[in-house]
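Problem: given the chain below (505 residues), write out its structure.
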Amino acid sequence: MEESLDDSDQVVADDSDTPWFQDPTRSKPFTLFKTLDFVEECYCTALFPWSEQSLGALWYGEKDKELQDGPWIQMISDWSGALAIGTLDSLLVIPLSASRPRKGLSVSVPKQEQNTPVMAVGWALPFEAPLEPLIVFSAGSIIYILNPVKGEIVGHLRGHGGPITSIVIHPTHPYLFCTTSRDFTTRIYDLTLSPQQGPDNPCWPPSKVSSLGGAPHGLQASEPEGMGVGRCVSVLCGGPSGGHEAAVLSAAFHPTHPLIATCGLDRAVKIWNFSASPSNGLAREDKPLFSSSRIHKARVISVSWLSTDTLITHSAPALMRRRGRKDDIYYEDGTMTIFRWIGFDRFFPAGQEIGRVLRGCSSDYHESSSFTLISTSSLPQQTRHVHVTQTFTGDYILALSLPDSVRLYNVANFHPRVIAPDPPERDPPERDIESEFKNVRLDDEEEEEDQPITTFFGKSPEPQRWEVLVPGAQGSVQASVLGFGGQLLVTLGKRRVCIWREMLR
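Solution.
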């Protein structure tokens, strides 16, 4: 498939125009300008994430002098707006740049993984060749690395013992990426290294040889890790010692510190310290610096960092029971929660070097109380996907995908959660205990009638939102992503991808 944006379709920022996410009077921020139809069902998508301004933040500016004169700008021009779309048995790459038209690329997974959908995808940049972006995608439990410039798979990696649920690229070191899996673990990979061809596991006393525990224990198996590029450098293990006790669904790298946040089916949000040093061999961590299952009532589907110590998470609807009755159940709305991790300054005190080993106490990695809820909002039960992106102005935009539309929120507009007021101070009435006991009957089975709840304490009012209706969706919208600093929106349907651009005044 060959698609490109002509000159009239280019997304151009207008400095004189207020961005739509800062203008409450803007009712329609986006206009549809391209629709792509596919034969196969689509499962995931990822937009090329970098721009000309990204170079200063990548690798802490180490590549500025090498790339700032023109090569970086040309690479951005070639790949801006490029889409990677996962389908059944294959990955589609659709470049939309008009500066150097390219044909669409379709790459099939190997035969042993056929009839397996590509469920996770992300864009990466190798440190040695930053002008050749890579695409990391997964089919089942296998990771594939695609070079879209050469049109070939340059690496495949194994290690997980269950299907991979998400792929996340480090925001400032894009040669690092992590994968979460239904095997309860999270694995961190380095694209500057080659796969390990033999186990590099620690020994378990009294044995003096490397353990061959494999994926269930967060280790490497006896078979080669893979071929090409990429190596697992750290494993965040699952299990009752402090890790996730169910499938891990999402993760997010901290932009400036060696931290990664994970969330999963066990309702827990965890924050881990990780090491990506190849000289230390495979790092295995089973005790996070923070863990809590009290932020949400149901599985936590996504997590993102908003600042140094502030995160945003969202959960699925929770199955609840009224007054303990087994036959009276209902679904409570999922929640979008912003919270602050209070323990950040304890592990990373200002002005001091970060220790080589960071270890909390039992109250940190089992059920921590070192957090403060800032905002908690209800989500529609039809929510299918949530995506958070940062704009050029520093604002964070949340795209909430519903079956037929996408709701957009500026996170800065979220309201603090409503705290229940203290009850008024009153003198307790005098009670006649003797008369109350006289009226007690053992066969009295009267139950209090359920009173309607008029005020939901602990939750925030709904913030201002913008809504984009997807034409002809018929309940098929699966996900949505924002790009170009909030100027481009992509909605993913079962067999249709719609591309929207900002409607400038």
